[in-house]
Structure formats: structure tokens, C-alpha cells
Amino acid sequence: MINEKIIKIIDETSKAVTGKNEIIKKILAVILAGGHILLEDIPGVGKTTLALAMTKSLGLSFGRVQFTPDVVPSDITGFTVYDRENSNFKYIPGAVMCNMFLGDEINRTSSKTQSALLEVMQEGKVTVDGVSHEVPKPFTVIATQNPVGTAGTQMLPEAQLDRFMMKLSMGYPSFDEQVKILSDREQKDPLDEIVSVIEPYKLDEMIREVKTVYTDEKIYRYITSLVEATRENEFIKLGVSPRGAIALATVSRAWAYIEGRDYVVPEDIDTLFVDVCAHRVILEPKGKISGKSTIKILKEILNETKAPKTEGFYR
């Protein structure tokens, strides 16, 4: 049974994002797993709104950068200035000094600026002029990007893509959802209606609780079988890395927690496998020529890999 706190967070966030409860749950799972999210979709489907709504419902401090070609690394990390009064250098915090950092349209800026996020995403700190500064806890990056090929975009390097625990796409709303969106925004902005339903320290407690969720060795073997299959597939040039396998195991614990269990089952892996792994895989040319997409190949691997029996996954 889903935790009552989780239900409140989902309900509050969905006030501004109609019909996307599954996406909201997955983003929440990544936050509880201590990871970062990449949202890729066409402009105007609500990526930024979703990030803002989630931040407000969780009561987190918020930082945002609208990435453009002229954004520089110090806008992200901060910089030092000389303080004449005290005769020393003073650190001026950058936009990442917050609980939730939104990098809007990350693939519209330079590779140098994109890479400024690497250290903070991996280690939770930034280094400026040889001095390290830790970001507040909890800390999550939600980056949005438009599909590659859209005017003014460039691909993120594989090393940075691998730092995102999950890549998600929102898609268009259904007919009824679109009608509701128009109606809800006739008199007010739904974001103004969202209230915090949890304190940051409580979220930190939940993150620690997620780490105690039990994962049986059979689950680890199942994850390993899946990622090995991506490395051996004839249509895949670059398979899922060990970091990707760790990410799948970690976020699966968070998903089990959201579902009200203190143990992981194979269905948790099945639910998250494509979202965790699709952005970590590069296809062979013959895969593209044959018309196979990354998602289709990963789903085939999932269907062909035998899951362990569900008995005995709890302590």
C-alpha cells in the first residue's frame, strides 16, 4: 500500500501537472534514491512546470538556470571575489546551492558549461579556486532538454548522460487532460495553489529509509542479466555501464518504498529498466538502419530475460 506521505506529494504536484502521475512517481523515486532526472520532450508540454510543482510540494529551496550559449560555468558553480574590507577572497554561491536545481534546456549551452554540473551531480559539491563547497542536502538536479535536432541544440556527452539516473518524456496530454489544463488556467495559475506537504528534513529521513529497503541477491542477478544482455546485443554498440546497473538497483529500492514495500521484487526492475537504461545505450548503425529504436530493443531484452520467481524476496 502506498505511503500516505507519498500520496500527498503526488496529489499536490498533480494540481499543476494533469494526468502525469506515473511520471511524478518516477521523479519522486529518483529524488528518494538520491539521483538526478533528465526530462526530454518538445517545448510546451510542462517540463518546467513539473519541476516547479515538485519543488513546492516537497518544500525545497530552488535554483534555476535557463541555459543559453552565453551561460558560463561560474553561473552554475559560483565564483570568488576579493573582499577589501576583510582582505580575503569571498565565495559567491552559484545557482546549484539549493535543494532542487532546474537546468532548463541544458542542451542549448556549451559543453564546458554542461560539464560544470558533473562534479556536483556526482559528489554533491563544487570546487571553486581549489576550495570545495557542499550543496545543501537533499540535492537533486532536474535538467530539461529539447529533442536533439531541434534548432540550437547539441548532444550531451555520454559521461554526463550517465550521471542522470533516469531519462523521462512527458508526452502530449490526452483530449480530456488538455480540456482540464485549459479550464484550470482560465482564472489562476495552478502552481500558486500548491503547498508544501513535507519538510526537507522529513524528505531526508525518507531518503535514509529507502536505503534500508531489502534487495535479494536474485534481484542483483536479474539486473546483471539485463545489463549484460545490452552489452551482448548485436544492435547495441555501447551497453549499460556498471553505473547504470547501480542506478537501476538504487532507484528500484525507492520504487518499492513508494509502493509501500520494504523489499524489491522483479516487477520494480521491469517498471524502471527502460527509463534508467535507454539514455545510456548507443545503437550500432545496423540497428538504426533496421528501424529498431533503443526503447524497442530494451523492451525485447526485458521480455527475453527470465525474471526470478517472486517467492522469498522479503526478509
Describe this structure in words.
By secondary structure, the chain is an alpha/beta fold. It contains 13 helices and eleven strands. It has a five-stranded parallel sheet. It has a two-stranded antiparallel sheet with strand order 3-4. The model has no long low-confidence stretch (mean pLDDT 88). α1 crosses α3 and α10 packs across α11.
Could you list the spans in which at least 5 consecutive residues all have pLDDT below 50?
none
Secondary-structure class: alpha/beta
CATH architecture tag of the largest domain:
3-Layer(aba) Sandwich
The CATH topology of the largest domain corresponds to Rossmann fold
CATH class of the largest domain: Alpha Beta
Count of discrete alpha- or pi-helical segments spanning 4 or more residues = 13
Lateral arrangement of strands in the main beta sheet? 2-5-8-1-9
Sheet having the most strands: 5 strands, parallel
Under CATH, the homologous superfamily of the largest domain reads P-loop containing nucleotide triphosphate hydrolases
Organism: Gallibacter intestinalis
Protein name: MoxR family ATPase
Pfam family, one: AAA_lid_2
Domain ChlI/MoxR AAA lid: 229-300
Question: Which helices and strands appear, and what pairs or packs with what?
Answer:
Elements: H1 4-13, H2 21-32, E1 37-40, H3 47-58, E2 62-66, H4 73-77, E3 78-83, E4 88-93, E5 100-104, H5 111-123, E6 125-128, E7 131-134, E8 140-145, H6 158-161, E9 166-168, H7 175-184, H8 200-210, H9 217-232, E10 236-238, H10 242-258, H11 266-277, E11 282-283, H12 285-289, H13 294-304
Parallel strand pairs: 1-8, 1-9, 2-5, 5-8
Antiparallel strand pairs: 3-4, 6-7, 10-11
Domain ATPase AAA-3: 36-166
Organism: Gallibacter intestinalis
InterPro entries: ATPase_AAA-3, CbbQ/NirQ/NorQ/GpvN, ChlI/MoxR_AAA_lid, P-loop_NTPase
